[in-house]
C-alpha cells in the first residue's frame, strides 16, 4: 500500500530483461544493494577490474546527493522534490534524507524501469506528515513528468529537481540540456536543481565506459566539465559551482574518499 492508501500497479517479472546488464542494477550492486542479477554482478565486476575507482564514483555520487538534498531543505527551505531517474532503492534515498530534516517534505519519484516498479512499495514510504509517490514516466517526455508531478507537488511553490546519473543516457549533450530546460521551465522561482554526472576526466574511466557501452547494455556517455556546467545555463549556481562531487560542500564529520573522482555535480537556483 502507498502512503495514500492506493496499491502500486504490479509489473510482470517477464518485462524485466535479465539477459543484458542494466546500469541501475549495476549501480545498486556497487553500492552494496541486493536488487541485481548475475549478469549485472558479472558486468559490474568486469567494469571494476578495468576501473577500480568506479566504486568511489558510485559512493561519491550518493554522498553528494545526500548533501545537496540537505542543503536544499535546510538552507534553501525547499520542502518538495522531483527525483527523475530514481534508480533502485539503497540507503539514504531522497525521501529519507529530506524527511529527516523536514518531516513534511513531499517527494515524487520518476522512473520508467519495470524493476523499480516492482520495488515501488519500498520507495512509497513516508513520514505521517509528508508524502511520497512513484510516477512511471520517461525522461524524454518532460511535460508528462511535470503533469504527473503536479498531482502530488504544488508547482506554485519551489521544487528541488534531482537528476542524478541520468543525463549521460541521453544521446547528445544538446538534447540533455534541452530536457533540463523543459523540466525546469514550469517550476516556480526559487526552485533548485541538483545534477551529478560522470566526467571524461580520467582516461581509465573513459576506456572502461567505452567497453561497457560496447557490451550491448544501454550506453552512458561521460561528458566534459564544461558540458556538465552547461546543464545549469540560465540558473544561479550555488557555491562552489560545478566540481568533483567530493568537493561540493563536504561534510567535515564524514570520511571523504578521493577528491578528484570522475563524477562532477552542482546545485543551482531558478531565479
Automatic annotation (TrEMBL):
User: Which residue ranges does the record annotate as region Disordered?
Assistant: 248-271
Q: Pfam families given for it?
A: Methyltransf_19 (PF04672)
Molecular function (GO) terms for this protein are: methyltransferase activity
- GO terms under biological process: methylation
Record's keyword terms, sorted: Methyltransferase, Transferase
Q: Superkingdom of the source?
A: Bacteria
Question: What protein am I looking at?
Answer: SAM-dependent methyltransferase
This chain's source organism reads Streptomyces sedi
Amino acid at each position: 500500500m502507498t502512503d495514500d492508501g492506493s496499491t502500486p500497479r504490479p509489473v510482470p517479472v517477464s518485462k524485466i530483461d535479465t539477459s543484458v546488464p542494466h546500469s541501475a542494477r549495476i549501480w545498486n550492486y556497487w553500492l552494496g544493494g541486493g536488487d541485481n542479477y548475475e549478469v549485472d554482478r558479472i558486468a559490474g565486476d568486469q567494469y571494476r577490474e578495468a576501473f577500480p575507482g568506479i566504486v568511489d564514483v558510485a559512493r561519491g555520487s550518493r554522498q553528494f546527493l545526500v548533501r545537496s538534498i540537505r542543503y536544499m531543505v535546510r538552507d534553501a527551505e525547499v520542502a518538495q522534490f522531483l527525483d527523475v531517474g530514481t534508480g533502485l532503492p539503497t540507503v539514504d534515498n531522497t525521501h529519507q534524507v529530506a524527511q529527516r530534516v523536514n518531516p513534511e517534505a513531499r517527494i515524487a519519484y520518476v522512473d520508467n524501469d519495470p524493476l523499480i516498479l516492482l520495488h515501488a512499495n519500498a520507495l512509497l514510504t513516508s513520514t505521517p506528515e509528508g508524502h511520497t509517490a512513484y510516477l512511471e514516466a520517461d525522461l524524454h517526455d518532460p511535460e508528462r513528468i511535470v503533469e504527473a508531478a503536479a498531482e502530488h507537488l504544488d508547482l506554485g511553490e519551489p521544487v528541488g529537481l534531482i537528476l542524478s546519473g541520468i543525463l549521460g543516457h541521453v544521446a547528445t549533450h544538446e538534447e540533455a540540456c534541452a530536457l533540463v530546460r523543459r523540466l525546469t521551465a514550469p517550476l516556480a522561482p526559487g526552485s533548485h536543481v541538483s545534477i551529478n554526472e560522470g566526467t571524461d576526466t580520467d582516461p581509465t574511466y573513459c576506456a572502461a565506459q567505452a567497453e561497457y557501452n560496447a557490451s550491448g547494455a544501454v550506453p552512458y556517455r561521460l561528458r566534459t566539465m564544461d558540458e556538465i556546467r552547461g546543464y545549469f545555463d540560465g540558473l544561479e549556481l550555488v557555491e562552489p559551482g560545478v566540481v568533483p562531487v567530493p568537493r561540493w560542500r563536504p561534510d567535515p564529520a564524514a570520511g571523504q574518499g578521493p577528491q578528484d573522482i570522475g563524477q562532477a555535480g552542482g546545485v543551482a537556483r531558478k531565479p
